[in-house]
Automatic annotation (TrEMBL):
<dbReference type="InterPro" id="IPR022742">
    <property type="entry name" value="Hydrolase_4"/>
</dbReference>
<dbReference type="GO" id="GO:0016787">
    <property type="term" value="F:hydrolase activity"/>
</dbReference>
<dbReference type="InterPro" id="IPR029058">
    <property type="entry name" value="AB_hydrolase_fold"/>
</dbReference>
<keyword id="KW-0378">Hydrolase</keyword>
<dbReference type="Pfam" id="PF12146">
    <property type="entry name" value="Hydrolase_4"/>
</dbReference>
<protein>
    <submittedName>
        <fullName>Alpha/beta hydrolase</fullName>
    </submittedName>
</protein>
<feature type="domain" description="Serine aminopeptidase S33">
    <location>
        <begin position="296"/>
        <end position="346"/>
    </location>
</feature>
Length: 369
């Protein structure tokens, strides 16, 4: 992997090794096609599709970025570099066709990657730091797949940000008029409440961004080399769609990937509670992050498959539609996975169905070498 602009991962071993790690599952017969499944921070070494794809004759890679298991200082532009390192590694080893799958949070990342591989434009992070992607080694892939994916971490984070929190240091001080967990507001939620709620989410995100920029400006005045600081964000799992399934209607049941929304919203292990100033701008700020899936997928020119689960509690039908609608050409396909949950947990028949669909699409597009 290419080094980052600062120390953004804790492990000295990982930094000094200069490597990102992947798990390759080989087909029984030699395959010159590799399918790569990636996410900005989740551990995909044991992804559920690797074995099934290899069994169907296609080599499959579960790829991790340098931020495996810890996105607190994640820089999206470095994730693009890590994907590029992996694609280059596979090309050097003779793979003639490479298909890149963005699963969950990987959807926005893979669109961002291919956009910059085909026609690079991003010269710095939103904080003005390296890398310059116009000078990076980013081999284009031959096909893109968005699988149970949302359009980007900053987009979905803003959709999940709890606007009822009135004190960034005290998540239990709440504005009842903007509290989706107050039964007086729903569910079901009125269109008027949802409109106010969405506006308040955006306003909270922008308040945090303004504070982040103030902190960075203060750091710039220091002469001791300190360039970043960590901070905490409370209330990051509060999308009304978690409780009101008539919003963005699908087959899902109420709740979240982590359990009941009211507790998941404040659990330490859920989305994006711990971050740094520079990571906030790159990863979570909806006005600043470069990782906007629809914007970037609109700049790509390879065959693209979008698959979504109709029972997914994380990525909703509108997320899949926003990615699909942004694809600028006709070599695209939108496929619902009926009854599929976010990671197809406990659904072996649907895992087989998704693997069959992927391999069938790869073959139909001439991507099986």
């Amino acid at each position: 992997m290419a080094a980052g602009a600062g120390i953004d991962i804790y492990s000295g071993v990982a930094r000094m090794a200069g490597k990102v790690w992947g798990s390759l599952h080989r087909a029984a017969e030699p395959s010159r096609t590799a399918v790569v499944v990636v996410h900005p921070s989740s551990n995909f070494l044991g992804h559920y599709l690797l074995g099934p794809l290899a069994e169907r004759g296609v080599d499959a890679v579960g790829l991790n970025t340098r931020y495996i298991g810890n996105d607190s200082a994640l820089i999206m532009e470095n994730c693009v570099l890590d994907v590029g390192a992996a694609i280059g590694f596979l090309r050097e080893r003779g793979y003639e066709k490479v298909v890149l799958i963005g699963n969950s949070g990987g959807g926005g990342l893979t669109a961002f990657y291919q956009s910059q591989a085909e026609s690079p434009t991003v010269r710095a992070t939103p904080a003005g730091d390296p890398p310059d992607l116009t000078k990076a080694a980013l081999p284009p892939v031959d096909g893109l797949v968005s699988l149970m994916a949302h359009p980007g971490r900053a987009i979905v984070y803003t959709e999940w940000l709890d606007p009822a929190i009135v004190d960034e240091h005290d998540p239990l001080r709440r504005d009842a008029e903007l509290d989706m967990f107050d039964p007086r507001n729903g569910p079901p939620y009125s269109p008027e409440f949802v409109e106010r709620y969405r506006a308040a989410q955006l306003a909270r995100s922008r308040r945090i961004t303004a504070w982040v920029r103030e902190q960075l400006a203060a750091l710039d005045k220091r002469d001791d080399g300190l360039r970043d600081l960590p901070f905490l964000v409370h209330g990051t799992v509060a999308d009304p769609r978690f409780l009101d399934t008539a919003l963005d209607a699908s087959d899902r049941t109420p709740g979240t990937l982590w359990g009941p929304a009211v507790t998941s919203n404040l659990l330490p292990a859920t989305l994006g509670h711990h971050t740094s100033l520079r990571s906030w701008l790159s990863q979570w700020s909806v006005d600043d992050s470069n990782c906007d899936g629809p914007r970037h997928i609109a700049r790509t020119n390879v065959p693209t498959l979008v698959m979504y689960g109709t029972a997914d509690q994380v990525c909703f039908p509108s997320h899949a539609r926003s990615m699909y609608d942004a694809i600028p050409h006709d070599d695209r396909k939108l496929v619902p996975v009926e009854g599929g949950n976010h990671y197809l947990q406990g659904q072996p028949d649907l895992i087989a169905h998704v693997a069959d669909t992927l391999v069938g699409w790869i073959e139909a597009k001439g991507l099986r070498a």
